[in-house]
Amino acid sequence: MYEIGVGVEASDEMASKRYLRAAEGGDSFAQLRLGDMYRHGRGVPQSYKDALEWYRRGAEQGEAECHRLIGYMHETGQGVKISYGDAL
User: Fold this and answer.
1) Residue-range domains of the chain with CATH
2) How sure is the predictor about 46, in pLDDT bands with cuts at 50, 70 and 90?
3) How far apart are CA 38 and CA 1, in angstroms?
4) Taking the model in full, what pTM does it have?
5) I need a labelling partner for 11 at 20 to 30 A (CA). Which of 3, 26, 42, 46 fits?
6) Residue 19 pLDDT
7) What distance lies between CA 29 and its chain's CA centroid?
C-alpha cells in the first residue's frame, strides 16, 4: 500500500521498511519487491549487491520473477560481470 499509495500517502521508505520485515520473515514476494527497491534505489540506497541477495532468497523459495531478474542482472552486468551462462 505504501509503495503505490493505496489508502496512504505513497512512501518508498515506508514500503521498504515493511518489505524488509516481511522479507526477513521469509515472504518470497516481499523479497522480490525489496530486491527491486534496492536495484532501483527506491526507499533504500541503490545496491545491486543487496538486490541480488534478496532476489536469490526469493528464488530459493521458487519465486519465478526472482529467477528472471537474476538472469537479467547477469545478462546486463548489473552488479556482476556479464555472464550469459549464469544468465541462462
Assistant:
1) 12-87 (1.25.40.10)
2) very high
3) 18
4) 0.93
5) 26
6) 97
7) 9
Lookup result for grid cell 527497491: 37
State the pLDDT confidence band at 21, using cuts at 50, 70 and 90. very high
Can you read off the three cell numbers belonging to residue 9? 500517502
* pLDDT-based confidence at residue 37 (cuts at 50, 70, 90): very high
Cβ atoms 37, 15 nearer than 8 A: yes
**Which helix (H) or strand (E) covers residue 41, if one does?**
none
**d(Cα 75, Cα 4) in Å, to the nearest integer?**
29
Ramachandran class of 26: left when φ > 0, alpha when ψ lies in -120 to 50, beta otherwise = left
